[in-house]
Amino acid sequence: MKSFLEESKKNRKTIGFVPTMGALHKGHLFLIEQAKKKNDIVVASIFVNPTQFNNQEDLDNYPKTLDKDIELLESVFCDVLFAPTVSEIYHENIVSEKFDFDGLEHQMEGKFRPGHFDGVGTIVKTLFEIVSPKNAYFGEKDFQQLLIIKKLVAKNQLPISIKGCAIFREKDGLAMSSRNARLTTEQRNVAPFIYKILKIVKKKFQEENVVEIAEWVENQFKNHPILQLEYFTIANEKSLKSINIKEIDTKYRAFIAVFAGNIRLIDNIQLKN
Ligand code: PAF
Question: Domains of the chain by range and CATH?
């Protein structure tokens, strides 16, 4: 991969990079399309990174659809696919480096998935070293991941521009995710409830206080037969710290993580004061 791209770089071709864990959906294809518009060569990677899973069952069940993914990548004219094996990336030592992301890693996903962002940092840094793109594209569904990757790039002074792309949703509002493929029909039918709640939160945020809104969300999930709330929080969009009181001229986002059986779904929405 390195020598292939070296040749392209010698010819002054710009490289756009879309790292993924496969089981591609329209959200990924949208990232590739964005990358195609601004770069000469677009590289996608497919690598189910073991060190970012804090739950072995989630790793074992992560959907793997390489043949279909290749067809999808071809359909959007992705130029290069990098799909290394675990041993090519980690050799014998499947462990992550430890990172300090100035506290971003301790919020939300970091609290509920210990070690997750060390795993993400390790793989993204490694992939960036191999591909050394000019631009790299990430979806806002994993908003915390997006900020952490921006921090990784800033702290390591990497000459890479990180582009965040809006959440891609199914027609019924469910945020696209590779994990959606694992939902049963019943779970899939109720999953749009998550976005419905977030849209109501967005409205409520204009007139109600944050503590009341959080209580309201918890009540909506309290007796839900299928969806279990793991966390809901309204946080500062930059620090990702949860808030109880909103201030003017500050940007906030609502974040949510919900279980449908053992499948974990996350979503978020930007709020307006
Ligand atoms: O968002 C993902 O799919 C993964 O966390 C990433 C960025 C490809 C790293 O494994």
Answer: 2-165 (3.40.50.620), 178-268 (3.30.1300.10)
CB-defined site of ligand 1, < 6 Å: 19-21, 49, 52, 120, 123-124, 142, 145
User: In this structure, what token pair is assigned to residue 188?
Assistant: 């899939």
- Average pLDDT over the chain, rounded to an integer: 97
Neighbouring C-beta atoms of residue 161, cutoff 10 Å: 14
Token pair 């469910």 is at which residue?
A: 174
pLDDT band at 48 (very low <50, low <70, confident <90, very high): very high
Residue 13: phi and psi, rounded to 5, are: -85, 140
Q: Taking the CA atoms of 136, 44, 240 and 220 in sequence, report the sign of the dihedral they define.
A: positive
Nearest to 6 by CA among 132, 95, 98, 109: 132
Compute the distance between CA of residue 267 and CA of residue 273 in angstroms, rounded to an integer: 20
pTM of the model: 0.97
Asked about 91 being catalytic, the answer comes back as no
What residue's CA is closest to ligand 1, atom 2? 20
